[in-house]
Amino acid sequence: MAKLAFYFDATQCTGCKACQVACKDKWDLPVGVTWRRVAEYSGGNWVRQIDGTYDQSVFVYYTSIACNHCDNPLCKEVCPTQAIEQRDDGIIEINEDKCIGCRYCEWACPYGAPQFNEDEGVMTKCNFEELRAKFGDLAEIAPLPDASITKPNLVIKPHRYAQAVDANNGQLANPKEV
Q1: Half-sphere exposure of 40 (CA within 13 A, CB side)
Q2: In Å, what is the CA distance from 108 to each residue of 72, 73, 77, 102, 114?
Q3: Domains of the chain: which residue ranges?
């Protein structure tokens, strides 16, 4: 069976958050639950030159992210009721009938994918049926470098201004949103 994965092309993303709004609307998610989130990364600076002009290295780019349907899902590993299940195609789902709302999965997931629905008292997350999401067989859409902890099933085509993880010259500009 094919291993499904999301594909995100950061070169095309303007940070408009239409994907975030469409997902929230399609699934009628309550306030405080946002399965798809758009992170804004920005940095750089302006440097005054000897002649009084300025050179700049300012950049901004966006990444839209939801559950990565990892091969090694930490959320599933910590669930005391086995409410988190992995289908044959790799998709991670939460069986809300088994979920007790303990939030262990939320704390374990490095991507913040499982989110607590206070109205229902259970955890919820993306189930890979995103509106207009681009996805396909992981083997056909170019893999990410090995992510040793969870092995996420997400491929990102980086923005031209994307910074290396250890560059330390940018920052997450909207941490409260993601």
Answers
A1: 13
A2: 12, 9, 9, 12, 9
A3: 4-172
Prediction pTM value: 0.74
Token duo for residue 94: 């939460």
Nearest Cα to Cα of residue 169 among 59, 33, 34, 8? 59
User: Domain 4-172 carries which CATH code?
Assistant: 3.30.70.20
Residue 176, C-beta contacts closer than 8 angstroms, at least 6 positions apart: none
Strands (E), 10-151: 37-43, 46-48, 54-56, 59-65, 84-86, 92-94, 115-117, 122-124, 135-137
Tokens of 76: 């599933």
Coil, helix or strand at residue 62:
strand
Whole-number pLDDT of residue 132: 39
- Sign of the C-alpha dihedral computed for residues 118, 121, 127 and 129 taken in this order: negative
Q: Encode pLDDT of 38-83 as tens digits.
A: 999 999 999 999 999 999 989 999 999 899 999 999 999 999 999 9
Per the listing, tokens 């302006």 go with 46
Indicate the burial class of 126 (C-beta count within 10 angstroms; 0-12, 13-18, 19 or more).
buried
